[in-house]
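WARN no homologs supplied; continuing
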Amino acid sequence: MNIGQAARQSGLSAKMIRYYEEVGLLPNIQRSSAGYRVYTAQDLQALRFIRHARTLDFSVEQIKELLSLWRNQSRQSAEVKQLALAHIQQLQQRIAALQNMVEILQHTADCCAGNETADCPILEQIEHGQKD
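OK structure emitted
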């Protein structure tokens, strides 16, 4: 199948498919005699795997590891679990940082009169940053 068909069937854009090939997530894509990419059913399965991993916010490097483990039938699930648990920890740290941002913005928004005056605690907060 060509890249347009692979894009439709995988739920990814052709641009993202080319990017994933460029960064090494899809090595050895076959080419037609005219030089066009030709995707196999296995390539399509890998593209879907990549899309699902991206929805879980795995990085390209993490996806490389996951793909390697996925393709390795002699893998140990402990390796996959370790990768997933490390990712969970990263996500929890990001959630905490985002929650902190929400609290800061909520506090400054609560302090803002929201009227016609120029005084704005929100802009002051952004200008000066978080106070320790």
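The CA atoms of residues 21 and 28 lie 8 Å apart.
OK
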